[in-house]
Model the fold of this input.
Amino acid sequence: MRRRIDANAEKKLKLLKTRKIREELGEDAAPRGKSNTIESMRVPDVTLMDDMDDEDIVGEQNIDEFDKYFNRETTPRILMTTNRRPAGSLFDFLKELKLTIPNLEYYPRENNRIKDIIAWSIEREFTDIVVL
Done:
């Protein structure tokens, strides 16, 4: 027990000394300790490429299929349909999705084949199809 009290007293004494040094000589005289956060302990990933002038990166970005969405060059139109026999609770979920996602339209599946729905959606210039 005595040893623990001595350790606490030593810590408190050290803390008081650094406070006094900071008051007299400024904050830089007694540097603060480095805190270990997730970000500070992260090991650098050598596979990441940060050089935006690299022709490989620029070339990959030019052929990226989602590039138009992220640069807001196109507005996505989404067609949503279900399987052939959807559960009743699925329609509540569809209503919530329709309220949350802009440009989302519902098309009842009924007995239509997916190939037919895809052809129908291409004719009407839909960009994406979601089957639930």
